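Review form for a predicted model. The reviewer records the input and the model, then writes brief findings.
Reviewer: anonymous (R2)
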Amino acid sequence: MSHRGHFTAVLSTVLGATLGGLLIWKAYRSKRKKLPSNHTAADPLPAPCLVTSANNCCAKLPDLPEKSLLPEESETSPPSVHIPTCEQLLGVKPVVVRSEEEWQQLWPLMEQELSVFPVLGLDCEWVSERGQASAVSLMQLASYSGLCVLVRLLEFHNKQQQVPLTLMEVLRDPRVLKVGVGCYEDGSRLTRDYGLSISCTVDLRYLALRQQLATLDNGLSLKSLASELLSVSLDKSSELRCSNWEAEQLSLDQMTYAAQDAQVSVALFFHLLGLGSKVGGCSYSELAGSCQGLVDVPFRAQGARRRRRSRKAASLGSPESGDQQVPDPRKHSNRRKPLGEGFSARKSPLYDNCFLLAPDGQPLCTCDKKKAKWYLDKGIGALESEDPFVVRLLFEPSGRPESEQCYYLTAKDNLCVVCGKADSHIRKNIVPHEYRRHFPTEMKDHNSHDILLLCTSCHAASNVHDSFLKQRLAQQFSAPQGCEEGLRLLEDSDRRRVRSAARALLNSGVELPQQRREELQEVIKSYMNMKEEHALSVTQLQEVANLETRILNESYVPHGLKVVQAHAKHGLRGLMDLERCWRQHFLTNMKPKFLPHLWSVDHNHSKFLRKYGGDLPITLN
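Model under review:
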């Protein structure tokens, strides 16, 4: 069977598998249009609701400046739509697209599916030789029903075919979510290799961590998430993962492997959002509201970086020589990094346990040796003992401990307070600096109580737990993280598109089709207010390729400041509540076994109340 005949046969199968629900949707919309104006909510029309977990908020995000391919959101509730199970999704055969004509045949169906659920599973495949990654060979896009399109981007490039305009537009559409593991990084590759602009990506690892549905030491790969959350086993053998994605004809196993990555991404997305098997179609605002703060955010967790596809060039005399180059040259590529690897640990102990005494011999506090020697060098202290190192001050200090049971009088061990590990330590701010920095001076000066020692792995685990509490505070006090209101600098989509066009022109050379070259030049000339007849110089292209795409957000209010402001409305007691909240959060989640003696969630609170009063107006820094 010819490639065109095979494409038509597969497309017919996919249409049969997905068209039923879409016909219901189309009939429903037609019926809504014919309703009389006096139709009321009591009439028997289906109006199912979006099912979300208790942790998910369907808040409407700000409208983005770019125009969407999809129609404007309507108040009309869509009919019940069957969301296939993961097994049903994986059973839908993928469709390979090699030309603009084949894409245009598929686009009407894809567009209709996006009108029901504006979400696409996104993944990419490429090969590497001698550690150098080639351009992306294959891009996979899967809709909610399991319809998966395998776009042979390299063939478009080699045959000097233009990437279809509707494909480019749906990739940069700010109201179509692209979900996957490492999808932001995949988008960066597509931009670098083909000048394609990818927006509205959501990394599934962030959703899993936010909802605490994945363990912290499992690597958070797509395979492990699918296994833990969907009970689905994905084949990630090196023979497939590192196979030749540039081959003229992909094998059935390759197509299945590639399609499953995108299909499982969609299934995981719906699972993490708590959607049932039958729900109404969802708007972008409903879906993106559950991803607040996670849109277009690169994944930064240590030890969870995505493994790259790689293949080793076979020698001419090898019996394995041929198109299919499968060995992975890197040994131990499947070994997972321990949580916290890559953190920079302290090179010296935090606690020297030197003691300072008042002129009459009363213990004042412990300190490090450098500070104790400073008093000696300045001639304002006298050495009382070498071991332990004790310095008696020769002047009256500004304050003395209120009792002998004081946290700052106790010697402290250089151990991880959680597990007791004796090396590889990092200082941990129990109340994160983004909040503490805005506290009144009285609550943060000479206050080391909330700085503890953690080993690198416990520190990394604690940071993940902290992200959950920050998200709760963000929702409770309308102090978003990572979206427009919570960013000092915003990405200007127009500037980014112009910069991408310039880089594509500079990097592609003569290989870029003439029609595509003219389109990119037109984008740049329009931005620079140049006349069409004027030619772009290399200097101008280089200048635009280095264009700054971030602009100042005039409505920016830092998340930490907004949370502190909300607590400060209740005076000193409000800020002490925030302080207590973070301390208790650390105790509850990390369960430290080696806390210093007298460490307390209410440290200094009674002292502040006696000195300042609970209703003291607060001036924030």
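Findings: The chain has 20 helices and 18 strands.
Further findings: Residues 477 and 563 are 6 Å apart (CA to CA).
Recommendation: see findings above.
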